[in-house]
Structures are given as C-alpha cells and as structure tokens.
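User: Hey, my collaborator sent me this sequence without any context and asked if I could get a structure. I don't really work with proteins. Can you help?
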Amino acid sequence: MIARAAAILRVLKDERSGLSLGQIATRADLPRSTVQRITGALAAERFIIQDPRGGGIRLGPELGAFAEAANFNIVERCRAILNDVTRDTGETTDLAVLRNGGMIFLDQVPGLHRLRTVSSVGDVFPLTTTANGLACLAIMPGERADALFARETGQDPASAAGQDFHRKLESIRADGLAYDLDEHTPGISAIGFAFCDMSGSYHAISVPVPTLRFDDIRPQLETTLRQARAKVLADFAT
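Assistant: No problem. I've predicted the 3D structure and written it out in structure-token form, which is a compact way to encode the shape of the chain:
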C-alpha cells in the first residue's frame, strides 16, 4: 500500500496542473481501481487535491509542509560542504533542488572575489542548459530524463538533438560532474554534481564562475567538487 501510494505521488510530482485517474494509473502501472482507492485516502489527508482549474489531481498543501521541512534539513546538512567549497576555491557555491521541471535554489555561499556570480534563493533555472540541471538528469532513470528534456526543449528525445542530449548525459554519468560552458548565461560557466536525498528528491551542488577565469581554475574546481561529491554521497548513504 505504501509503495503504491509513493508511486502515485512520484507520478504527480512533476505535474503542476494534475492528472486524471486514468493517466495516473497508466504512468504508475497500477489498476485504475487501486489508484482510485489510494487517491481517496491521500485526499482525505490533503496529500493530494483536485486542481481548482479542472486540470485533474495534483499534490496537496500538506506535502508542501513536508517539502519545506525536507528542504531545511537538506540545507542544514549541506551548508558545511558549501562553505568548504567556497573556502577552497574562492567561488560561489549553490545548492538547488529539482521541483516542477526546474532547478530551485535553496542555499548559496557567495564567492570571495569582487567579480562573482550571485543568484537569489528561490530562483528557478532550467535543466538542460545548466550544470546542476544536467547533473540531476544524468542520475535519474532515462525515461524520466527524456520526458523532462522533451518538456523543456520541445524536442523529440529520438531526434538529433535528443541523441546529443543522451551522449552528454552518458559523459556526465561516467565522470560524475556536469558542465555548463556559457550555455545558460553568456559569460558564466559552471560545474556541478547531483545526489538524491532519502525521499528520492534530486539535488545538486554547483559552482558558477565568470567564464574569463574558468579555464584557469577548472582543475581546482573539479578536484574540490569531486571531494565534495564523495562527502555528500557518503553522508546520504547513511
């Protein structure tokens, strides 16, 4: 029962306007009668609600409270690592979470240089042109990554652009680090890595750098982020 309820919630996680019972049943690979019974129980606890605009069933406000508590916990657990990366590199370090098809910034330690990159907590960045977004796409199941790619870009995953995307994800999986080389914002490059928390949510830690000094410090960034990645993966494995 719990596993099936979790499957339904995961299906709804990236659908802001909601899904019908039939769509949920198809995506969760569950019988419609089972979905109807479980969604009834989840609705009673306000974990899901009927979208007021008629778009179907979507996540409810009660889960928002859980999400806020989880975000606070992640920020607290990762803050020391963000501080270490900024101390060792002198660059800004960001923590973001994948929500509703975008990367939302949860925390940031500003860099020590006069010329530095700064984003606001709460800013939302795309997935396919950012280091943190690509890092998250690389560690999730391929079908979900393809769906998010198609949703954001409007491109078929089987197209030439989709094949380039697949090759990029394979490279990230092999290396552990993702790169944004002036792809999202001209003049800014970044390196990042991703991890999952205990609830299965995708997070990323990344370092954005003015491109004019990126090549000079790239080896140091890579070394520091590999060390940070090892610490985070060890932490969340326990």
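In plain terms: The helical segments are 2-13, 21-28, 32-44, 61-89, 131-139, 142-153, 160-175, 211-236. You can pass these tokens on to your collaborator as they are.
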